[in-house]
Structures
1.
Amino acid sequence: MPILEVINLKKRFGQLEVLRGVDLSMEKGEVLAVIGSSGGGKTTLLRCLTFLERCDSGRITVGGDEIVGEAEFPVKTKKGEPAGTEIRSVYPNEETLRVKGLKMGLVFQDFNLFPQYSVLGNLTLAPMLVQKKSRAEAEAIADEMLAKVGLSDKRAAYPYQLSGGQKQRVAIARALCMNPSILCFDEPTSALDPELTLEVLKVIASLKTQGVTMLIVTHEIDFAREVADTVVFLDKGLVLERGPAKELIDHPKTERAREFLNKIVSRAAGKDGE
C-alpha cells in the first residue's frame, strides 16, 4: 500500500488553474523530488499535501487513511437556479484535520524558527503543545533529532546565533520531532549560498540512508538526480513525466522536460565558466 496517494488534485485561484488534476503516489522510505519551472504549481501542490491550502477537488490518502475525500455538490446559477452538480474535495473538521495533518511534516524554505525561543525551545514547543508530551519526553526527542542533523552542540543557541544552514538543519530537526509519515521540503536551499546549501543537502542525503520518507520540491537538479529515487516533472499544474531519478533527468521523454532540463544544464555551465 502506498504511504501517499493523491488522485486528481485540482486547485485554482480565481480564474487561474494552478493544479489541473495531479496524480501522485509514494512508497514508504521513498524519496520523491518534484521539479519544474517557477509557477508550475510545485509549492501549491506541497501546500495542499500539507493541508496549508485546501484543494478544490481530489483525494489525499496518507498511510491508508483518506484524509481528503470527494463528494458531489449541487451547483446553482447566479440567479439561484439549479445548474447540475460538481465534484469537490471534502475535508474533516478542523480538529481532526490538525491531528491527521501531523502525518505530513514540512520544512519551509525560510526556516520559520521562533526567534524568541532557543533551538531546544523551537524543537520542544509543538510536541508539548500538540502531542501533549512531557518536557522530559520532548527534550529527549529533540536531543535525538539534533544529533541526526549534527547540531547537538547548538541546543541552547538562539536563531540569531546560527548560520542559514544551521537554521535550516534546526527546521529539519523540528519537523522530525513530530514523527511525520512523510517529511516534505519546499525548496530547502533557496535561501542559502552554495556552501551552506551543501551542508543542508548532506543532512537530507543522510536522512535517506535512515529510511525517512521524503517529498522534496527542489531546483537542485544534481541533488535530485543523486538522492531521489523518483522524480516528477510538474509543468503548468500537470505531471508531465514521472520516472526513476537518473533516468528522467538524463533521458527525459517529453519535449517540455527536455527543454527545461537543457536550460538548467546550460545555466550551470555558464556559471562554471565565470
2.
Amino acid sequence: MLKLLWTAPLSAKVGVLAILAYAFVALFAPLLAPYGETAIVGSSYELWSDKFVFGTDNIGRDMLTRLIYGARNTIGIAFLTVAIAFFVGGTLGMLAAILGGAYDMLIGRLVDILMAIPSLVFALLLLTVFGTSIPSLVLIIALLDSTRVFRIPPSAAMNVVVMEFVEAARLRGEGMGWIIRKEVLPNITAPLLAEFGLRFCFVFLFIAALSFLGLGIQPPLADWGSMVRETATLINYNDITPLLPAIAIAGLTVAVNFVVDWMLHLSSGLRSDSH
C-alpha cells in the first residue's frame, strides 16, 4: 500500500495527507481542543485574539474548539451513515444481481420509487416525523442513500457472476453468502471503494446542509453546518469567521475527491504517465 501511495500523483498524496489530518483531529478532539465542547468561555462574538484564536460564537463558545469537535461529530456521523447505507444497499444490490428474476424486479421498483422523491424533501419530511436525534438522522439518511448504492453492486458484479469460478462455486453447493464474500466482493472492491468515497462526500455535505437548516446535528453538539448558520450574521461586518467551517467542509470534500479520482484511475487500468 505504501509503495502504491508513493507512486500516486501529487493530488492523491495531498488528498491522503488531508484526510489523515482530518481523521487525527476527529479522533483526538478532546485532547486538541483548548476548551470543552459546550463551554461558554467569553462574551458573544469576541474578536480573534491570543485567548480565542478564531473568536467566539453567538453565545460565547470558542470557535476553534467548536471547529475541532465539529470534525469529530460531522465526519463520524457521515462515515457511520455511509457505512450503513453501503451495507444495506450493497447487500440488496448483490442479492438482486445473483438471484435476479422476481426479487430483482420487486426491489428494483421499490428503489425506483424512493429515488423518484427528492432526497432533501424526503429527509426533511422524515426528520420532522421521527425527530432529529442522531439515531434518526443516521438511519434516515442511510436509508435514502442506500437506494443510490443499490445500483452499483449489480452493475459491477454483472460481469463477475457469469464467470466460470462463480458457476463452479454454485455447483459445489456453496451458499449465497460464501459466493458474495469469497468470489464477488474481491473482484468489485475497487469501484465500490471509489463509490464509497463519493457517497461519503454527498452524505457529508447533506448532513451539513440539514444542520444549516436546523434539522441536522442538534445543539449543543458542534457541527460545521450549524456553525455557519450561527455565525452568519458576522458576514455583514466583514468578518470571515463563518467561512471557517465552510472551508473545513470544502477542504475535506476536495481531499476525498482527489483520492477517489486516483482510485478510479487505478481501477480503469489506464497508464499514469501523464500524472
3.
Amino acid sequence: MKTMYKSAPLPFVGQKRNFVREFTKALERMPDAPVYVDLFGGSELLSHVTKYCKPDAKVVYNDFDNFRRRLEEIPRTNAILRELRGILSGVLGKQRIDGDVRAKVIDCLNRARDSGYVDYVTLSASLLFSGKYKTSHEDFIKETFYNRVRGSDIPDAADYLAGIEVRSCDYRVLVEEFKNVPGVVFLVDPPYLCTDVSTYTMSWRLSDYLDVLSILSGCQFVYFTSGKSAIIELCDWMGRNQNVGNPFAKCERVSMSAPVNHFAIYEDIMLYTTV
C-alpha cells in the first residue's frame, strides 16, 4: 500500500475522514497488536488507515454494507456519470433539474437499473440536495434533482483494500472469533444512537447499542460515538448507579399510537407496577 487515503474514495455517511489524523496518533500510542478487527467497517477507511500504519498486522474489515461492491463498480458508475454530464450540459451547476431534462435523467437511471448495478449513494452526491442520500431506485427518482454532477471520473481505487481481509457478517461473529486473540484491537464504529441510520443495511435499537458496549470490557479498542447519542452520559450514569437494575422488569406495559401529523406517528408507552 503506497498511498494512504485520507477520505473514502466514494461517498459514505459517517466515514471518519475528520478523524484520520487523530486516529493515526491513537494507533501510535497504543501497543502494537497482531490483529485489528473493524467490526462496523462502513467505508473501510479505518481499516485502510490501520493497514497503512500497521503493515505487518492482520486487519479484518467487516463489509456489512457491501462497500467493496461499490468500489468494484466504479467503472460502471463513471459511465453513468459521463452520460449525466452530457444530459446536464446546459444546466447551471447546483440548479434544480426539471421538465424534459429531468425526464432524460430518469430515463438514464432506468436504463442503468435495467442493465445492472447502480450505486445510488454515489449518484446521490451528484443529483440530490447536499447531504441527502438514497439507496434504492424507487426512492431516488422521487427526489428533486439538482445539477451537482462531478466534472471528472471517480479515480480507480484498486489499492484501497490492499492487504486487508474482507468479511461480511454480524459483528458478533467476529467478536467470538477474535476475542481471545492476545492483544487484539477492536475498531468499533457502530451507527450512532439518535442519528439517521437510513443508509445502513441494518436496523438498530437502543439494546443493540448497549450490546456493543459489552465487548469493550477487558479488551483493547477504539470506539467512536456522537455528541448526539448520549451513550457516554448513559454509561457514566450506569457507572454511578450500578445497583439500580431494571426498574421496569415487573411492570405492565400499554402502548398507544400518537399521531404527529397526517404523515407520521410515534408510540407512547405507559408502564406501571402491580405489586
